Amino acid sequence: MKTFIVTVLFSVSICANRSTDYQKISSGNVCSASVINSLNKTAKSWLFPIYMGGANSLESYIALDVNEMMQVGSNRRISVSTQEAKLAGTNRYYIEKDSHLLLNNFGIINSADKTNLENFCRTIFQNYPSDRISLILWDHGFGPEEPPFTDTRSVRKGSVRTLLLDENFPVYDVFDPKADVMSTLELVSALSTVTTEFNRTFDIIAFNACKMMSIEILSAVAPYCNYVVGSEIPMYACGFGYDLILSPFQTQTLLPADLCRLMTQTFEQENVRKGLDRYQLSAAYANDDVSNLETKCGEIGDYLSSCLNHQTEENPVIDKLDNSAWAAVLIKGIYEYELPDAKLFFSSLWGENEIETGDLDGEQDPKLLTNLKDALADANTLIDNLVFSKVGAGMDNDAQGLTIYFPLEGYPFFSSYKTLNFAENKWWSFIEKYASFY
Fold first, then answer.
1. 349: containing domain
2. According to a count of CB atoms within 10 Å of the terminal CB, is the N or C end of the chain lower?
3. Which pTM value belongs to this model?
């Protein structure tokens, strides 16, 4: 049973120029934890602990977002705290209006190490009483795919690297220079550890992060939360507008679903005021329909594998899969060809690129195509039920809220995807069979 309500926001910006017309944050006024704790003896409505993994190319953007937080800061309704990882070291702060109070200096620690995320969560659960908690993870994000790296530490080899990149720990060849990156399994382990230890489940896990709003990531974190917020596409270095999110709490408090809607609405405002015209953010329930959708994706994977086994020599099924995935790619012309929008992909397979009897050799189960069509329709209904708020602009297709891993011909095929055990690896088996034709 979920006995408490907690919110987690994963704020991940990527490398692009952001507006710099902000005042510089202070170096931090030293303030003991006991002083801050004395300000927080009474439970507040919301706690916003913000885990900022900036020991990489995003370091200069920390000040921009912290200044947005300082425009509102903590008050009688909310507490705001940051842990800011930089190449020179990691500090923890308490954010008040126009104040950036230093709590701890940890030296150089690995923000991609799940233990440090667990310790951050553990401290805030212990020291900041609140009705709801909104944990914000701020860094690079990769979703259910792999960043380009060469694994040099065998104990973690083969696990999908999903977010939180730290260049102080050069374990993987990610971009240039090398860095460590937290895996999806490590993220799930951290969430499981803290929710079990404190008997508190997260209310919202909001990935203000590149490419984190996939069915696979939603399925991975859903056991630990009630809502998920994130983007299907890269964020182009424009994360949440923290002042816009925190401002309403100066006069009122918000229910979790309303906070999710505020995140999507203000994300659009933030991109507009930063002069960006390509963005996407959606909010989804993390209820039983998530596991239903995962099961349905497994069924679809089974049916599509059967279609591939029985396609005629002309390979029409492969062509229709390629055409459907291409129709569902949200931004053509860049490298996002392995994460098509799931609903658009399924709709195309059900519609203009429908697999027909004549595409198969006649030896398949006569109910195969009917079952496939029904499963595709059911999956789209579930996506509609789950995604309740979304914004987007500047895409070749309208994003429907969730992506799914499907590497088009010529694009990266990541065998480590199997470690997610998504849909009991039935979707993976389909992907593996599809890739074998290339």
1. 290-386+407-436
2. N
3. 0.89
Contact 84, 62 (CB under 8 A): yes
Long-range contacts of 84-90 (CB under 8 A, 24+ apart): 84/52, 84/54, 85/52, 85/53, 85/54, 85/55, 85/109, 85/111, 85/166, 86/54, 86/55, 86/59, 86/62, 87/55, 87/56, 87/59, 87/167, 87/168, 90/55
* Contact by Cβ (8 Å): 26, 62: no
- What would the pLDDT profile of 287-333 be if each residue is shown by its tens digit? 999 999 999 999 999 999 999 999 988 889 999 999 999 999 898 76
Domain presence at residue 116: yes
Is 396 inside any structural domain?
A: no
Q: Which amino acid is at 237?
A: A
Q: How far apart are CA 302 and CA 429, in angstroms?
A: 8
How far is CA 375 from its chain centroid? 26
Q: CA–CA separation, 244 vs 240, rounded Å?
A: 8
Q: What residues does 334 pair with on adjacent strands?
A: 332
The C-alpha atoms of residue 378 and residue 223 are separated, in whole angstroms, by 22
Indicate whether 331 and 218 sit together in one domain: no
269 & 306 share domain: no
